[in-house]
Amino acid sequence: MADRDQVAALLxxxxxxxxxxxxxxxxxxxxxxxxPERLSxxxxxxxxxxxxxxxxxxxxxxxxxxxxxxxTFGGAGQANYAAGNAFLDALAVRRRAEGKMxxxxxxxxxxxxxxxxxxxxxxxxxxxxxxxxGLALFDAALGGETANLVPVRLDLAxxxxxxxxxxxxxxxxxxxxxxxxxxxxxxxxxxRLATATAAERREVLLELVLDQVAAVLGHAGRADIEPxxxxxxxxxxxxxxxELRNRMNAVTGLRLPATLLFDHPTPAALVEYLHGDxxxxxxxxxxxxxxxxxxxxxxxAAATVDAKTHQQIEGxxxxxxxxxxxxxxxxRPHEEIDLDDVSDEEMFALLDEELSQQGD
Length: 360
Description:
Distance between the termini: 82 Å
CATH class of the largest domain: Alpha Beta
Largest sheet: 4 strands, parallel
Number of helices: 16
Strand order of the largest sheet: 1-2-3-4
Number of strands: 4
InterPro entries: ACP-like_sf (IPR036736), KR_dom (IPR057326), NAD(P)-bd_dom_sf (IPR036291), PKS_KR (IPR013968), PKS_NRPS_Biosynth_Enz (IPR050091), PKS_PP-bd (IPR020806), PP-bd_ACP (IPR009081), Ppantetheine_attach_site (IPR006162)
GO biological process, one term: fatty acid biosynthetic process
CATH topology of the largest domain: Rossmann fold
Order of helices and strands: HEHEHHEHHEHHHHHHHHHH
Protein name: Carrier domain-containing protein
Helix content: 55-70%
Pfam family, one: KR
Keywords: Phosphopantetheine, Phosphoprotein, Transferase
């Protein structure tokens, strides 16, 4: 279908009353590994094939494009495939605008078909369609007036439990919106690590990693996951590697690279990497101080005060900052301070701070 001359020759030999474009090739991988050749492998049958049929098929009674939910919701490791299917959806809209027949069906996974990773998608809340369900949806789509349809099964309860509801589904699945939701997992983890010893921190991180590995692979628990075993040997591919990275982002609050599992190829190696980022030397003291600052930060963000009160608070913060700078055991550079914002008490505190530094 990607060869225009071959498509033209085929159509010249047959009278075509309807077109169903179902071509599709997968070549999944993280975005940084998608070469022009790998993009072409996926895009040519989708994009070029559909475009040739659009231009050459003439006036037909039906023009059906088999797109994919990956083009609607996105798919881990499927940037090329998602782009190709998004083109099909756009082509259907264009044909409708031109007064021609067209519908693009963004299929979810089928029990039987080329779609890989159906178990993973089911765990994410999109179980596969049975053949009879898919055929019924196909028939219903032919009688509609909509350019784009998304025939999928959705397990709303599973998606809701996952917490990260796609924006397109928030009209179907209502979840409470909480400030700081993205970093809550990382904050809770930081609190656990703050008072733990180095050995305890590693144990906490190992349990965390193994739990996420088990969830991605569909295991009931972490017991069967060997920490020293290679992720590839455990059954990971590029898609599940990205899924694990995304899960680790959510539970740690970090922004981890897409190559996380390639750079740290075992659960044990990943634990050591996370330990270095989340629990460096002095982590307990650092986390304790940062936690103590959070209530102040929230109070300041929520406060509505007059100009005078604002100046008083700003002066007090400047005193605290000056005292904190003095704890480094070195004289900080002289900085200009707006004395109009500092009370008498705070002024004396600043003078005491300066004199104490000069006397050391």
